[in-house]
Amino acid sequence: MNLHVTKEANIEHSSLFEPLRIGAMTLPNRIFMAPLTRSRSVAPEHTQTPLHAIYYAQRASAGLIISEATQISAQGQGYAWTPGIFTDAQVESWKPVTDAIHKAGGHVFSQLWHVGAVSHNVFQPDGKAPVSSSVWTPQGQAFVGDYHPNGPLVPHPEARALTKHEIKEIIEDYQHAAKNALRAGFDGIEFHAANGYLIDQFLRDSVNKRTDEYGGSIENRLRLLNEVVDALLQVVPASKIGVRLTPMGGAGGSYDSNPEAVYTAAVKALTGRGLAYLHVVRPNTHGGGGDDAAFAHRIMAQMKAAFDGPFIANGEFSAEEAAEWVAGGKADAISFGRSFLANPDLPARIAANGPYNEPRRETFYGGTAVGYTDYPTLDVNN
Ligand SMILES: Cc1cc2nc3c(=O)[nH]c(=O)nc-3n(C[C@H](O)[C@H](O)[C@H](O)COP(=O)(O)O)c2cc1C
Fold first, then answer.
1. What is the pLDDT of residues 218-240, one digit of tens each?
2. pLDDT, tens digit (0-9, with 9 covering 90-100), for 329-362
3. Which residues are annotated as catalytic?
4. What's phi and psi for 67, nearest 5 deg?
5. 302 domain residue, yes or no
6. CB of 37 closer than 6 angstroms to any ligand 1 atom
7. Residue 106 contacts residue 62 (beta carbons within 8 Å)
């Protein structure tokens, strides 16, 4: 894979090193660590380990770390060995992680996750079918690891449609998880409304076929997003709540017939509420949406213009393009996924114009310290 983060002499990156204020935090740079699922939590409780503290503390020079996606309930899980934040044991296991980040001078938000249909019965309470806005079978395969005898990858089963009562329970689960995240020492939470998971399964008309107030018009499809944000605002200060959206692509193959209309409306619904930031994955070959650069540009500009707070862009950014976007006012910060995974000291490397480690895909999900905490820093390379 091509990181696009190339070593070039005399590249001007200073815009990325302007401090950024979010709520009460003054972040030292605009190079954020994007949320990265690494599937290294441990059974039976889906808790974090001392290795997680090392991994995140290594990356504490990020302007802001956004944690790996973390399920708000057992129902919200869709991948093997992902962490939760709904039990006391999970909260306790996160405390050394947030502590280690803070001791290393960093800041971290917890990404709160419900996968909806992108799951499998093996993760679900009582082995029930996964849930979604409507009856729907996601494309692709569920990463079930050793939870299933035919693992690690098996087809997704058909999801069932949530009842209105169950929707209310999910909103409460978000609230409970958000309170837990603050208890666990996170500086805030990122509401994961992106990448084809539960919230997208309500927003997008390829999945949402409901005929009640949660389906049909864009206003109705936005209802769950809005209700979760309202619920989060009751328990967490607005300045500690970020939201992630992806207008195109994501797990399961869902899409909307008019993403510009839906996602601009989503941003309008999020604006005026004092939220910490909006974090958008741009349409691209990785995030979905293909190679239509003009479309990607237009929808990002529309979403930025519709939001009244810090705007974080993500998706296949090179250091050079990131610096250009921030300098040109197209984003307030850029989050890096695979580059941060492979380069724990990414800001220092950007400042020095590289060199950069290449990410090793085979160790992305699951396993040990290998491919997790063993990527060298620049001083080791030199
Ligand atoms: C290994 C891996 C795990 C990811 N896990 C998450 C996740 O937990 N939550 C999320 O919103 N996005 C997740 N993503 C998407 C990234 O946050 C990011 O949007 C994507 O990698 C594109 O950014 P990049 O080109 O800088 O890597 C993941 C991507 C990768 C490669």
1. 999 999 999 999 999 999 999 99
2. 999 999 999 999 999 999 999 999 999 999 999 9
3. 197
4. -65, 165
5. yes
6. yes
7. yes
